[in-house]
Amino acid sequence: MLRLRTFWLGLVVVGVLLAAGCGDSLDKVKSDLGGQAPAGSEGTQGQSPGAMPEASGSGAGLPGQVPGDMVTVKLYFSDPSGQYLAEEKRTIPKVEGIGRTTVEELIAGPSPESGLLPTIPVGTVLRDINVRPDGLAIVDFSRDLVNNFVGGSESERLVVYSIVNTLTQFPTVHRVRILVEGQEVDTLAGHVETSAALAPAPDLVMKGK
Predict the structure, then answer these.
(1) Are residues 109 and 103 in contact, defined by beta-carbon separation less than 8 angstroms?
(2) Strand order in the sheet with 183-184
(3) pLDDT single digits (tens) 174-194
């Protein structure tokens, strides 16, 4: 009888020791995970199994844009007399493909406080722009550039060279070729040759601007 009681007492002691050891092991696992329960256990940060963690930080910006990074560009519009180009400086986000963004700003027209006049015909859309390694920028507009043009030879020169002068402000652009719907055109309205690549015309820019 004494031996039997001793046997059962031994089993109880072993059971207590094993339970204490398991508790210490579980505490160690929790400590290694920063106090969280192991993955897959109930209550893991309130997420259901397989849920993706939320991304940190604010939403993504424009492609190539460094948040808060800006650049000042020059846009060339018509002066109030309709005889010269006048420069308007504008600060825009610095993005990849800054030439495209700059031409789109030109299409949008001058700021009201500038007192300048738009050069690009209403409804014109920039279809594509490509700058080659040799410094030639090929810029493709919608048919509206031709169909919606209103004016004579002076107005046509201002339209063409507002595009050319605006793009050649960038050091990688030396000449500009204008396309309409992907095709070369001899002129926009019969006065200014546009079938060849064009260099900037600084003489058209109003002095002092």
Answers:
(1) no
(2) 126-131, 136-141, 175-180, 183-184
(3) 999 999 999 999 999 999 999
C-alpha distances in Å from residue 81, one per residue of 32, 39, 107, 139, 144? 76, 74, 20, 27, 24
pTM: 0.68
Place of tokens 């963004």: 101
Determine the distance from the C-alpha atom of residue 201 to the mean position of all C-alpha atoms in its chain, rounded to a whole number.
30
Structural contact between residues 89 and 115, judged by C-beta atoms closer than 8 angstroms: no
Query: In this structure, what token pair is assigned to residue 187?
Result: 């002129």
Other beta carbons within 10 Å of 161: 24
Q: Where are the domains of the chain?
A: 70-201
